[in-house]
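Re: that chain you flagged

S.,

Sorry for the slow reply, it's been a week of failed gels. I finally had a moment to sit down with the sequence you sent. For the record, here it is as I used it:
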Amino acid sequence: MDGNDIGGKCPVMHGASLVSTFGGRTNEDWWPNALKVDVLHQHGNSNNPMTPDFDYREAVKGLDVEALKADLHALMTESQPWWPADWGHYGGLMIRLAWHAAGTYRTYDGRGGGSTGNQRFAPLNSWPDNASLDKARRLLWPIKKKYGNAISWADLMLLSGNIAYESMGLKTFGFGFGRADIWAPETDINWGEEDEWLAPSENRYNDLDDTSTMTESLAATHMGLIYVNPEGVNGIPDPARTALHVRETFARMAMNDDETAALTAGGHTVGKAHGNGDATALGAEPESAGLEAQGFGWANPDQTDKASSLMTSGIEGAWTTEPTKFDMGYFKLLFGYEWQLTKSPAGAHQWEPIDIKEEDMPVDASDPSVRRMPMMTDADMAMKVDPIYRGICEKFMADEAYFRDTFARAWFKLTHRDMGPKVNYIGPDVPAEDLLWQDPVPAGSTDYDVAAVKAKIAAAGLSQSDMIATAWDSARTFRASDKRGGANGARLRLAPQRGWDGNEPERLDAVLAKLEPIAAETGASVADVIVLAGDMGVEAAAKAAGFDIEVPFSPGRGDATDEMTDVDSFDVLEPTSDGFRNWHSDSANKSREDMFLDRAQLLGLSGPEMTVLLGGMRVLGTNHGGTAHGVFTDRVGQLTQDFFVTLTDMAYVWKPGPDGIYEICDRATGDTKFTATSADLVFGSNSILRAYAEVYAQNDNAEKMVADFVAAWTKVMNADRFDLV
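Prediction finished late last night. Pasting the structure tokens below so you have them in one place:
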């Protein structure tokens, strides 16, 4: 659901395979079950065309924002014959571009969203639901070309939606720049297991009538859609049933019922859908089109220089009487008329009003002398039929100012949800208000004696492993995908995190009972004290192994309060598995090694960083619950190479044992020496990970192992310190 076309009638052949093989089988074709370690390297410098010292967040600070906004305002009404604007205004198209860039966000893993410019690449650039958005990006190209490195595609696409709304009469809530572009497709995102576009929803649900049974990691109802099928569940109109799926998909994208209703109404207050023709006649999507198409897809053999000839979703018509104005027209038509089911010229299910007055009909997108029938999708009818949504809409209708404010805030949330804390926002239009969904953290003090804090920590009587494990648990929640979680804020001490099984609540309570008074006595934040204690544990472990090294520490973390914490929104951050601490709960939905790799990628770690951290954490004795699995050393607590040395030593044989635990046996005697999990042994079985492990097992790399561990540890501890970037 969005401000324009919504992928109802698929503009490409149903059943078409999503998989292409060029020239021969790839490694993934031959060995589809192999751990896909390459996702840790997908956004490395090798595919980035910018110079190594280029910093977009610095470059955008020099942007002439007012000039850019003026150019975008002008663009809205400069119709191009190769893609004519509806009613001479590109507002609806640009809103759809921004909406579909941001609308892929999901709370489960924080992936998707518009903060990377990923819509430029497959599969998103060729999703059925994104048909014709290639034209929107091409319309923006002259502006991108003009402002160059000072504006990213990610920022530009979302800003275009903001300006579109402003040009049509909405006062927006604000805008933050700062989204840096990626330069290759995001291979870490699982959009679904289907091998055809718009495969039946049954592929994603255990029970279509119980929307909570949708596959946990997904948010949209079909492969290739942003939200739901606008024609109805599996294309069968039933507004009451559709409402349940709308509620579930929007909730998985961080929206409550009020925000969902506001976005639906505000998105469909402007623009139109395009289905005045034969959707099956459209050409291939951009990734399949010929070279001569130059990145364009969905070629329409019947297109003219008239906007009314455009074809996208197969649904046809505008939602309101004046589709280039942000007004209350959506509610006037939806609730002012009864509606009946019909079909578009392209054959898509849609709804039309009964006995509509001629003056309430919108004019043709190309010919103002002709009136056209408005339409509603099944998802729109859900706003009228569902009692909860209807009640919300009635509140909007009674108070236009309330509707405008609710929509503006929901639109701001939609387009900024994956940017993380407000410190990441740049520019003159950043709202002053702190919003709960931004996970606010107050600034912490740097004006305290770090040495004095360390002395008090040393005297507190905490074990080395407890200090390291607590700091790790505090920091490991960070997700580079949407920049949530992390050590800053010390939410480890607040609900719900303090009670998470993965944080060993009883052990955590005992540690915090000793660290929190130190913070109060010294003026340091609890967040800083937790991290500093972990650093001290690492330093002690390195010293015990013969290496005198100081772990870098940057003070200034703040402490969040209960009032700053939306408890429900933190549920998605709760770990069910942590390969670094060799813990895997019964509720984990994937294998140990798959979840381990996923966590490492979300933390922003490379393959070598993931490897050295795991090997170090094992010998430091930080396993959850104190288990001995993977602790391949007789020198627990010393930061040694022992994990890697044992893993690569042919003096041992590795045997499957009970309950998924492996036994490491002496090859000569058969005696069991160690135990391990798959999260340990994958570093010996996977060829890429073994190559890293062998580096850290070499006799000449003991010092390198310690230095690399400290660097990777510090990276995790500072992952959410956006103030240090």
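What I noticed first: The mean pLDDT is 95.

Talk soon,
D.
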